[in-house]
Predict the 3D structure of the following.
Amino acid sequence: MKERIQRLKRDYPKKTAWYWLLITLLLFPLLPEYLSLILLLISFVVFKVYWSKINKKALLGETGKIFLIYMCYMIISAFWSKTHLLSALIGLLWMGCFLIYVYVANTVNTKRKLKNAITLINLSAGIIGFIAILEVVTYNMSQHLDGFSFAFPNPLYYYVNDIIYDAIPVDIVNYKFEARASSTFDNPLILATYLVTVTPFCAFGSVYFSRSKNRKISRVCFLLALGGIICTSSRGAYIAVGLSLLAILLSTSNKHLFRRIFPFIVLLAIAIPVGLVLRYKNYPKGDFLASTSKRFDIWESCFDIFLKNPVVGLGAGSDNVHTLLRDTYGIDRTHAHNLFLELLVEGGVIGGIFVVIILIMIASLLLRLLKTKDKIFHRYSALYASSLVGFVTMSLFEHTLQSPKELIVFFMVLGFIEATYRIATNRQQITQEEILNYTEYESISDLQPRFVRTKSERKSRNIQPF
């Protein structure tokens, strides 16, 4: 035991960037929006310092390069935007969250690291889903059970946010949601976007992870994440998670996978109607259908705004859109409630071209991953495709890139796609310390490196003796 501790202490500096990535993947969804971004920035600094010491450069993939150009265009849009400072800050916010893509793509460089990182994502999703379930259950108990008055804060950080947002010079509305879960996010729709995006990771881990601990953690978290989605009472999320699971089933054509996931599909089929009934019961009469009708009005108005500003749009940020919707069209909504329409209104045709190119490049990368020889990467391609199907479906009903945590989780998925493709094609960067000192981690509970000691092992891996 002492020897293991000494080895861990000795090798800790060489793995600091990897440890910080695991911490970031676990904690960023659990923290408030403002702290999540700070955690990411600190982690990235650790990563850059370490890579500078070993004379390595963080590489951008093709998708990352296009995204970088697009974000520069967003910052430039501040010149013609009516909210100059806010538009520039939105572009910088995207760049800050984009760092998770760079971090993941360059740090996750082995199959076991890939598995361990995904397990941490699943664990975080499970915790968030559990909090969401507690919020909705305690609220309904307080409403319908005599003598029970306790309800979890919803959002969880509502009272903390109230203090923080009052101290910030920018106007940020801090809503309180009771009947629909928000968990650690600011509203139910942001929570739904996150869970819809990461739930396929839980499904993947609960079926394909070979280590019992990783698989068991993923299964429990899969159940809790689905429960969290139900508790958001978001109809868009229900459609999105259904299509996402359908996509992963169709893309693999695996009877074993279908048999493992089928009980969860039955659970969804039972729980989704219950979620809709609860929303209908807990909200004012007519609100359930009125919100749908209002979306059509918003989309029609935003398309009209685009036609009046077709080339470069209004500029980055939803504040310009909000002002026009409120003052010109009499609709007091903060954005287009559709990601692609929102980006088209903000960036015009030029921004729209960037979005189309990015989508094509992501699809191309997934197809190339699907064509690799190792069949395990075909499964990862199906995982990422289903995650993006859920995200895109949710994006049809919501502006899914409006908050730091939404941006981080989206860029995180792109980072995993890039990292997996590099591993599949042997293009990843392996540091000298990794080659000399350890192969790959076995599980999240086994952070002790496996040392390459025998001559045959060194020869098979082309490793020089110590």
Notes: The two ends are 23 Å apart (CA to CA).
